[in-house]
């Protein structure tokens, strides 16, 4: 296991233990919440060209206090069992925190996607799915995977097709075996952007909190706040675009594998993505300059630092360089426990990963519900709401003698499409979860938001175990 992965695994355990001491729950109950309930390590052969390659993979179900379990599948040559265990544990706490009724799980396949063709990746994905089916570790009521680093809608479609091949005739709800599917293949509108949109909602909510912003000596609101984003994958790119378009934030730095760019003005993320698509690099984007050391993204002068790549990016070795007053952990575990101690002493507020990147699992929950109900959100009530709003406006016109234009009517009477309802549900979820964390942070005098989030999540999981009669 690499040092970074060791730090990540130890950080999750250390953060749990720190919060557990503040809960006054029985040790046996805390031990049950902490451990992984099921760990499946597998090796399977796949034919690659004229040869066979043995693939190592994992699926970990951390907690069965709620079923099904839920968690993404990561494709990375660095993935190992301890990393997947840590990610599965975070999923349990994340789901509890945002009131999504799943136990936590996670999957990992130890490959680099750059080493395989799409056809070969499809072979690997389908064989991995078959291994999960064999052990009853996938299904709408057992365990529901989703995308993670190195995977996306394409891989989820392959998983669905494989599952349907084996189970489609037996299970009416088989489409709910996996989420993050393409929208036209039992998926849901808004899932692709969900994690990044959730990062925006959560960061915006903190920036609107006068208690926090006055403590930091910053003005209220996310508008005109200077952001630096590490990682232009799905999460980082959507976080940047939505923060700019809907929040009025300014992106002054972007870090990627090929280097780090900075600007004195605003880096248009949508234009940057188009540039990268054409040139295969962010280096040279007009209006920016390139840092000599790409790892110096942590030291860029900004208000909000958003690590949106992999774990253990901010460590005790570079934490002292951070100039941002807020770190929004769009990735899982980007700040190590040792680094957090340093940052806390320096007055930096960290919005923890288990809360801020929960948008993905929240909208995955919506997708799962859609698959079980077999009806698109908005189909039943959109037209009814539109007609009701129209009748109200016509009544207002009649009573006031004034006329409302057709354009204004079209805006005021619009019923919710699926994308509108998904975004609304996600926004409501992120706002409610934020305030549940803040209630603990403020009222119980907790030293940081991560500990407050862990305390909140642990109490919710413990409540389930107690309600089930597992613990008196």
Characterise this structure.
The structure is a single chain. The protein has helices at 3-20, 27-34, 81-97, 118-134, 153-167, 194-207, 210-216, 234-247, 269-279, 337-345, 353-356, 359-373, 382-400, 406-412, 418-443, 449-467, and strands at 38-48, 51-61, 69-75, 103-109, 143-147, 226-230, 250-256, 259-262, 289-290, 304-307, 326-328, 349-351. It has 472 residues and is α/β, with parallel strands linked by helices. The strands form 2 sheets. The protein has a 7-stranded mixed beta sheet, with helices on both faces. The longest helix has 26 residues, at 418-443. The radius of gyration is 23 Å and the shape is globular.
Low-confidence stretches: none
Shape: globular
Which sequence of SSEs, written as H and E, runs from N to C?
HHEEEHEHEHHHEHEEHEEEHEHHHHHH
Task: Calculate Rg over CA atoms.
Answer: 23 Å
Strand order of the largest sheet: 9-8-7-6-10-11-12
Fraction of residues in helix: 40-55%
Any idea of the CATH topology of the largest domain? Rossmann fold
**Fourth CATH level, the homologous superfamily of the largest domain:** NAD(P)-binding Rossmann-like Domain
The total of beta strands comes to: 12
